[in-house]
TrEMBL record:
It comes from Flavobacterium pectinovorum. It is an enzyme of class 3 (hydrolase). This is Xaa-Pro aminopeptidase. Keywords: Aminopeptidase, Hydrolase, Manganese, Metal-binding, Protease. The keyword Ribonucleoprotein does not apply. GO terms for molecular function: manganese ion binding; metalloaminopeptidase activity.
């Protein structure tokens, strides 16, 4: 891994939080992701399942975590199962976790090789009443490929039909949404790497540069700072491309006078950052572009202030909509009649700002969090309003990542990334 080793104390704390919510006499199992095939002997780069990483720090394929807090013996309360390493594997694939190294990473003393899993699990099942299975219940999830976790669940249900079943995901949704200080530091590091990429980019952008050349500049800076790369597929959208919310082709030439919407950010140690900035190809905003830009910036700043403990998700978006409506009226994009006659299910402002303002951020770019529950301190959110005007050939979105505080306004993890019009223009022309 490119990142510095994370202190295992974080994962010890995370496991303690999870097991505290488990039912008496229950077992929970978490599997690594598969390495997914492309064709022939090609595969996608491995990405660890965020749940097993959150609970163990293990960042390796074919790994299993078993938790049994009420086990009859201390050595059975936490167990890791790893792919057995060898000299042959070391030569062909590189170093894998040894049992001692796995303990250093995770803080788990009982480590088996993977071939012992079914034998050990069978013994645990004779002691336990309930199994926690780990299904994907994220509100944005669309899963069309059977995962390693799903195959395990199917196998377990066939082989242990007499046991009770419980779900890990509701516990994880709640505990993962509130970040430990170590996690906030890791997200901050991802944001700092993103800042370096953005600052590298500003003097580089000139008329006729291509979107993919911009992408190349960013990935260079991210990787040289110990990131694997982008936290999500980058959006580098010049001109009218910005009005396609998830434009990812990044293959067009950037023309003089146009704007570029950059929704790009680095990961670090599997933690995401998520930044959007909009910059002028020629290094200077037109008066109209500047007016729309400052309207978006005002909405972002006002929305940020609302992210406080006790805030309800649905009401938050209603209040942000009111601020956006005021700004759109000022820009002449909607009028009072549009507002008076609006459909409450699709307010007038949605014509120009059709997506949500915020989402949870952490080990996933769209991280875990229960949207029907009030916001709490140490939750990390994006704030990302936008105004999209196809008729005028541009769209503007601005996005920062913030941490909810016990009192007062959130702490902005992207506070050092240029966002004001004057600073962006100055850096682009330096």
């Amino acid at each position: 891994m490119k990142y510095h080793q994370i202190n295992s104390a974080l994962f010890v704390k995370n496991r303690r939080k999870f097991t505290a919510e488990m039912k008496p006499n229950s077992v929970a199992v978490f599997n690594s992701n598969d390495i997914y095939p492309i064709s022939a002997d090609s595969t996608l780069p491995f990405e660890q399942h965020r749940d097993i990483f959150y609970l163990s720090g293990v960042d390796q394929e074919e790994s299993i975590l078993l938790l049994f807090p009420d086990a009859p013996h201390e050595s059975q309360k936490e167990m890791l199962f790893l792919k057995e390493t060898s000299e042959h594997i070391a030569i062909w694939e590189g170093e894998k976790l040894t049992k001692e190294r796995a303990f250093q990473v995770s803080g788990i003393r009982t480590v088996y090789w993977l071939q012992d899993f079914h034998k050990v699990l069978n013994e645990m099942m004779t002691y336990a009443d309930t199994m926690y299975i780990n299904t994907n219940e994220h509100y944005r999830a669309v899963v069309e490929t059977e995962t390693r976790e799903a195959r395990f669940v199917k196998w377990w249900k066939e082989n242990y039909p007499a046991h009770n079943v419980a779900k890990s995901n509701p516990i994880l949704q709640r505990i993962r949404s509130i970040k430990e200080s170590e996690e906030i530091d890791l997200i901050q590091q991802a944001c700092d790497i993103t800042e370096k990429g953005f600052r590298r980019l500003l003097p580089f952008v000139k008329p006729n540069v291509t979107e993919y050349e911009i992408e190349a500049e960013l990935i260079h800076e991210f990787i040289r700072n110990r990131s694997k790369g982008f936290a999500y597929t980058p959006i580098i959208a010049s001109g009218n491309n910005a009005n396609v919310l998830h434009y990812i082709e990044n293959n067009q030439q950037c023309k003089a006078g146009d704007l570029i919407l950059l929704d790009v950010a680095a990961e670090y140690a599997n933690y995401s950052s998520d930044m959007t900035r909009t910059i002028p190809v020629s290094g200077k905003f037109s008066e109209r572009q500047k007016a729309v830009y400052n309207a978006v910036l005002k909405v972002k700043n006002e929305a940020t202030k609302m992210l406080t403990p006790g805030t309800l998700w649905k009401q938050y978006h209603i209040e942000v909509g009111k601020v956006m409506t005021s700004e759109l009226l000022g820009l002449g994009l909607i009028d009072k009649a549009d507002v008076q006659n609006e459909n409450p299910e699709w307010p007038a402002y949605k014509k120009y700002f059709m997506h949500g303002t915020s989402h949870h951020l952490g080990l996933n770019t769209h991280d875990y969090g229960l949207l029907h529950e009030p916001m709490k301190a140490n939750m990390v959110f994006t704030v990302e309003p936008g105004i999209y005007i196809p008729a005028e050939g541009f769209g503007i979105r601005l996005e920062d990542n913030v941490v909810v505080q016990e009192k007062g306004e959130p702490f902005n993890l992207m506070r050092n990334i240029p966002i004001e019009v004057d600073e962006i223009e100055s850096l682009m022309n330096s």
